[in-house]
Amino acid sequence: MKPEAPFIYIVDDEAGITALCERALSRAGYRVASQNDPRAALKYFESHPIDLLLVDIRMPNVDGFEVIQTIQRWQPDAAILIMTGHGTVETAIRALRQGVDGLLLKPFKQNAELIEAVKLAFADNQKKRDAARTQALRPLFAVSEALLSEVRRVPLLDLIVKTMIAQINCSRAACYQRQADVGEFTRLAGRNAPDSMPLLDLIARADSSDSPILINLNGPGDPDLKALLTDLEAGSAILAPVHHPNLNTIFYAARAVNEPAFRESDLEMFQILARQAATALENSRLYAEQLEYIRQIEISQKALIQSEKMAAVGRLSASLAHELNNPLQGVQNCLHLAEREDLSEEKRKEYFEMAKSELERLMTTSRRMLDFYRPNATTQTQVNVEDMLEYALSLMSKQLDEAKVNVIKDIRGKLPLITAVGSQIQQVLINLILNAADAMAPDGGDLRVTAQTRDKNVELFVQDSGAGVPAEKQMNIFEPFFSTKDGGTGLGLTVSYNIITAHGGALELLPDRSPGACFRILLPIGGKP
Questions:
Q1: Considering only CA atoms, which of 15, 10, 12 is closest in space to residue 118?
Q2: Candidate CATH numbers 3.30.470.20, 3.40.50.2300, 1.10.357.10, 3.40.630.10; the one for domain 7-135
């Protein structure tokens, strides 16, 4: 749609001049009205918005500068072009001080001179407004950063009100939110703007209009809105509605009767501030929702962890009871049988030996349990992994020979020292070597032990040529009391895993290495981080 042409209002006590100007400007495409009585013109400004005032300086009864003061009070953004047949330096200086946008000397030599003067006045007025807008927009960058960096709702609302008061230089400001369930407005924050029926009425009107409202008591506009402004004892007010999917807000600012009226540039600034404030409030809401979501997740995680702890305690208790009950039951049976009077001395000795064996089994399980719960009870020192490996293999050599195990040792380069508890690392190596020998019984096989430096770790592989660990059991291999061999306590790998983890390393079964089972140990060179 083609924009409406600017409206020019001519005030001059000479009818011939007003008729000449009106005719020339109408032909140039402007909307024009004129008045020869300056007092009537002053009344006209109260209810009729104009774009440019073309006024004569010297008129009877009312001075042209008085007309200019009136239009600036009622319509501060209107452009002003003065006409005079007595142009002096003093007149020009006074016009500039009052913010006049142009000066035209009478009589005009031709209509083109008038048209050009009007164009220049509009252009100068626009430059002034743009400069004022630019000057006002500069602090908005800092304002945007301040608003968007504050996510706490209460401090944010206080900051919004303070920012609005500071940026548009007013004494009153408030922020309202419409409650979706009841359709009523609730004040979120405000300063010098107590709730009242006139203000709530203004808020409701701004919400229904869905567009910003600028009201000046001494200016054109809706008489009903001006009446509400009078009830609020305010001289001018701005209301800006901002609607988001989850947040409907109305921002309000007002100046007192004795303060300068709001201009169009103030309205533009307020709209920008309102949008920024609404965005900041939405961010704050989303942040609060995210925090609540995280809090609920943390509560759920704690509940799950506690539940898993209780389940683990239950599983451990059941496993421990089972592991202890079997040998105890065996001891009880052996002692009961050994009490029989008709039993031979040889048979009685056999039952006592069986009971002793079961008691030793109980002691082994107890020691393993103690190792399981206190793997870090010794001071760490600088140790050589290759030396510990040699010691473990030497210690187990007789058992390995009897089990027909062929040891293949592959040490790749000089291994650096690590910080560890040597006896515990040796225990891990012995556990893995024994497990490998058992896995290859009774026919024996190859035991390959590889050691090398990888990044900042010493890496060891212990691999046998046995049947390997079944896929369905690989997930549980490090659990307490879980064993893949008959007579095993199921604690050797669990204790080994805890020892390596306590040293800041890793122990894992590599399922894709064949033949047999391959365990990988990583130990940090500098000790536990």
A1: 10
A2: 3.40.50.2300
Region 356-373 average pLDDT: 69
Q: Tokens at residue 187, please?
A: 């004040």
For residue 40, the tally of other CB atoms under 10 A from its CB is: 11
DSSP notation for 239-307: EEEEEETTEEEEEEEEEETTSPPP-HHHHHHHHHHHHHHHHHHHHHHHHHHHHHHHHHHHHHHHHHHHH
Q: Are 285 and 247 spatial neighbours (Cβ–Cβ below 8 Å)?
A: yes
Q: Locate all alpha helices (DSSP H) within 403-506, ordered by sequence.
A: 422-439, 492-502
Query: How sure is the predictor about 378, in pLDDT bands with cuts at 50, 70 and 90?
Result: low
Q: Residue 139: its pLDDT value, please?
A: 61
**Residue 350's closest CA among 332, 338, 333?**
338
pLDDT > 90? residue 462: yes
Q: What is the pLDDT of residues 295-313, one digit of tens each?
A: 888 888 888 767 766 765 6
Using DSSP bridges, classify how beta strands 7-11 and 31-35 pair: parallel, antiparallel or unpaired: parallel
In tens, the pLDDT along 86-122 reads 666 677 777 777 788 888 887 776 788 888 888 998 8
Residue-averaged pLDDT of the chain: 82
Q: What is the DSSP string of 416-443?
A: PPEEE-HHHHHHHHHHHHHHHHHHTTTT
Three-class DSSP category at 113: helix
Instruction: Return the number of other C-beta atoms located less than 10 Å from residue 448's C-beta.
Output: 19
The secondary structure of the chain in percent helix, strand, coil, rounded to multiples of 5, reads 50, 20, 30
Q: Choose which CATH entry (2.60.220.30, 1.10.287.130, 3.40.50.150, 1.10.10.10) describes domain 309-373.
A: 1.10.287.130
Name the strand (E) or helix (H) holding 140: helix 111-149
In this structure, the strands spanning 234-244 and 213-216 are antiparallel
Q: Region 143-171: what's the mean pLDDT?
A: 82
Which range, 125-129, 188-192, 242-246, 513-517, has the best average confidence (pLDDT)? 188-192
Whether the ω angle into residue 107 lies within 30 degrees of 0, i.e. cis, is yes
Residues 6+ apart with CB under 8 A from 389: 409, 411, 429, 449, 451, 460
Q: Which of 174, 211, 180 is nearest to 195 (CA)?
A: 174
